[in-house]
Amino acid sequence: MSGFATWRALVDAQLLSGAEHYTTFRKVPSQPTVANVWTDLSINSGTGNPIPNYYASSPLISATFVSNEGLFHGTPVSPAKKYLSRMMITMAPTGTPLPMTFTLCDYLLYYPFVDMDNTDPQLLTNSVALPRYSDGLNVKLMMISHTTYAGGQTFQISYTNENGVAGRTTPLLTVNTAGNAYSAVAGGPVAYSNGPFIPLQQGDLGIRSVESIQFNAPGGGLCALVLVVPLATMALRGVDAPSERDFFTETPSMPQIQDGAYLNFVGCPTGSIANVPLFGDATFVWE
Fold first, then answer.
1. Given a cut of 80, is residue 207 above it in pLDDT?
2. Domain residues of the chain, as ranges?
3. CA angle, corner 142, sides to 119 and 214, nearest 5?
4. Alpha carbons 109 and 80: distance in angstroms, whole number
5. How many other C-beta atoms lie within 10 A of the C-beta of residue 109?
6. For residues 9-34, b (16+ Cβ closer than 10 Å) or e, as one string?
7. pLDDT digits over 133-162, tens only?
């Protein structure tokens, strides 16, 4: 089990050692969404806290995130280990996007401004490597739109897997036709399948870096390729009650939060989330 072994150890860390950080968040997404298409709430966050992340850096060159610009989990604690202890999520009183699933991720690095109209191979530059989870195990890949798009075109991605083997390729995938900015534009060979993450070549369990991407037809828009590690998933079913989870008592293990982690959410609504305030809090502890 990852985390505290006993209630006493947890309470002692919080009350006696002060090894606890409490934080809040409030987002007001700016872009509309459609049912069953995942949206990246790190960029689709409009006003509020944490501040929006726009994947705005040099095109096709890997870049990392600033930890303090995500959901703030406190300062580094090494050699201690930090864990997510509890979290609460609720939403303003409108049922438009609910029920909605949320996945908290550690965002590792990204490659911005991939041109979804370009049918030539687009070679990516790995100027920086993974800052955490350096072996790539359990690292997932997302494609997040910078803009609106038409979609419908197929594509493949070449990458290096968790064993350091380069030249691995995804299945032939299809960009969905939802067309919404800040959405996960392809999660599988069928629109809306496989959640927000791109399926890898059979047998691969993670990804260290991306090498290239090629579209077989123009489909409009720009997107970013984003490497993340999913940490926790929660569901908000209605506006009449928040979604709360105690990760010490309700899950087999507590999600570990590495020093320098940039934390934010992806979410799957059942309607438009535009201008609907989303807020909550989280508690982190370490030992």
1. yes
2. 37-76+107-233
3. 15
4. 24
5. 23
6. ebeebbeeeebbbebebebbbbbbbb
7. 999 999 999 999 999 999 999 999 999 999
